[in-house]
Amino acid sequence: MILSNYHSHFNLDDGYGELSDYAESAIERGLSIIGVSPHAPLCYLNDWTLSEANLDAYAASIPGFKADYEDRLEIYGGLEVDFIPGGMGPADVRYHSLGLDYRIGSVHSIEDTSRGEHLSVDGPLAEMELLLQETFGGDIKALVRRYFELEMEMLELGGFDILGHCDLVKKRNIDNRFFNQDEKWYRNEALQMLQLASKKDVVVEVNTGGLSRGATVEVYPSRWMLEHCYELKIPITLSSDAHNPDHIDYYFQESINLLKSVGYGEIYFFSKGQWRSQPIL
Ligand SMILES: [Zn+2]
Ligand SMILES: [Zn+2]
């Protein structure tokens, strides 16, 4: 079985280590293909994405990086692009004119109109609480609805290959601090988004990045969502969202077993410009 990972960061965004460290780790662990996907620069100040200056430098470094590992590892250059209504998104022409191989579309933050800022559901617990209290007046249903609504707007606009960590809104919900995924209202919001994803030409990733960084006790998306993905015939790929070379295949075998247990018999990988399926072994 070809093992691949298309979601990883490095020291030009919020990851640790050089591109070559990720390649060496992938070879050591038996991966055949890797893609790197630093965060595209945001339309507001932050400390976790590529800088504007580094975006071009990153894209320009990819052909040489591929050549360095030609005989040992298939390498692709991608970007993880945020969707910010009126600001930026994976459909923007600029992300398609850099000579890169693919894009991950992700929603990390929600606009806080009262503050004129964007607050992240991926950041510290205090930031999630601020977002909930200040932007949504404590209404968690409204926050969750807005999160999935943003993903749906991004899906409608398209321009990306992989839908990134599609239930990231649960990241700070340890011990059901904010909501219970078993409740009907939550399931309806998430399911609407998956139904739309199934009609678009995108691959959903099983993302193990919450687990490797100790933030979650399960992958993105949750098992019950993967069961719906299977029913909706949504193609799946495995992603570690590695921010450290040692995590390049974190929790992959467990995720493969999880996919098998929900019924999946195949998994998708990207190679030579195309997404293909292979049986899960
Ligand atoms: Zn992300
Ligand atoms: Zn990421």
TrEMBL record:
Give GO terms: molecular function aspect only.
histidinol-phosphatase activity
Q: In which pathway does it act?
A: Amino-acid biosynthesis; L-histidine biosynthesis; L-histidine from 5-phospho-alpha-D-ribose 1-diphosphate: step 8/9
InterPro entries, per database record:
Histidinol_P_phosphatase_HisJ, PHP_dom, Pol/histidinol_Pase-like
Q: The PHP domain covers which part of the protein? A: 6-208
Among the entry's GO cellular component annotations, what is one?
cytoplasm
What Gene3D superfamilies does its record include?
Metal-dependent hydrolases
Keyword Amino-acid biosynthesis listed: yes
Tell me the enzyme class: hydrolase
Which Enzyme Commission number(s) are listed? 3.1.3.15
Report the sequence similarity comment from the record. Belongs to the PHP hydrolase family. HisK subfamily.
Q: What is this protein called?
A: Histidinol-phosphatase
